[in-house]
Amino acid sequence: MLSLPSIIIFLLIAILFYTFYSLIKKAFEEVGFTGWESSIIVFGSIILGMINLPLFKYNGWIIGINLGGALLPIIISIYLMVKNKVFFRVIIGIALVSYITYNFTYVSNRGIISPFPLWLLPPIAASMYSVMVSIKSKRKAASIAYSSGTMGALIGADFLHLKELLSLRPHAGAMAVIGGASILDMVFLTGVIAVIVDALLYES
What we know:
The chain is mainly α. It has one domain. The protein is 65% helix and 11% strand. It is built from eight helices and five strands; from the N terminus they run H-H-E-E-H-H-E-E-H-H-H-E-H. It has a three-stranded mixed beta sheet with strand order 1-2-5. The longest helix has 27 residues, at 4-30. The N and C termini lie far apart (48 Å).
């Protein structure tokens, strides 16, 4: 039989998970997906986040990509850019977010990281930029925020720091994974947070 502290811990974990799930689901609804489509994306991201796909080997490193933490967000970003015809505005946003992300992330033995609260700067920048360039359309602004945030974090954190990371001496079988923290990775969260900030700005 479960003790009272165990039940309380379980309930707290359940509440935290539901809150996190609701926020991510809301973000995908803001960019134009239906409720059930958003739910599929969230749970699909969690499931696919368990899979790292090896891409190539370099200097003792195995370079890979996490399906839920990076590949799925990339596909969604491209889809939103094409669907909402915001490609050129997103390109500028990606450049902006990439620059900010690169300057507030660094390489360590734990990978490419950014300390709190500095990792909030890229999504805030993506959101503010999206509102500036698409003030009349909340849906387009959300798409620009998500795509700029996701792709900007990917380029600024992972791609631009990749040379530094690969210069470190790896242990046997070491794997550098893009989006390796799954739904808790900066690539995944930057786009989601940017859309949530967008929603708050439009409601204010």
